[in-house]
């Protein structure tokens, strides 16, 4: 089950520090243009998405989550999900562990 936390933190250096302390690796900043859509898919590792700017809607079998700047979403390995970027695009930190 996905876990969403509203942190209000949007400084990438602080986000990297926190995620490293939580055991996430392969951290990088990613951006998607407006209205990008990712079909249903899974990842082999636990994944995190921490929104720095913009917004993205992520759907899982449990429901939909609208993530905005400062929101962090942890998605366990193997969780089916899709994503749709908002009208202004999105910038976020990605990482994995496991």
Quick description:
The chain has 98 residues and is mostly beta strands.
Task: Kindly describe this structure.
- 10% of the residues lie in helices and 61% in strands.
- The protein has one helix spanning 12-21, and strands at 3-6, 25-32, 37-41, 46-60, 63-68, 71-75, 81-97.
- A hairpin with a 2-residue loop joins strand 4 and strand 5.
- The longest helix has 10 residues, at 12-21.
SSE layout and pairing:
Blueprint: E1 3-6, H1 12-21, E2 25-32, E3 37-41, E4 46-60, E5 63-68, E6 71-75, E7 81-97
Antiparallel strand pairs: 1-6, 2-7, 3-7, 4-5, 4-6, 4-7
Strand content: over 45%
- Give the H and E element order: EHEEEEEE
- State the shape: globular
Tell me the Rg in angstroms: 12 Å
Average pLDDT reading = 97
Number of strands: 7
Stretches where pLDDT falls below 50 for ≥5 residues? none
Helix content percent band: 10-25%
> In terms of structural class, how would the helical and strand content be classed?
mainly beta
How far the N terminus sits from the C terminus, by CA atoms, comes to 16 Å
């Amino acid at each position: 089950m996905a876990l969403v936390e509203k942190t209000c933190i949007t400084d990438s250096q602080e986000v990297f520090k926190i995620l490293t302390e939580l055991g996430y690796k392969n951290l990088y900043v990613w951006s998607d243009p407006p209205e990008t859509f990712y079909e249903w898919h899974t990842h082999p590792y636990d994944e995190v998405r921490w929104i720095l700017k913009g917004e993205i809607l992520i759907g899982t079998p449990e429901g939909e989550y609208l993530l905005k700047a400062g929101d962090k979403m942890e998605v366990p390995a193997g969780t089916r999900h899709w994503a749709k970027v908002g009208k202004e695009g999105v910038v976020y930190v990605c990482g994995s562990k496991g």
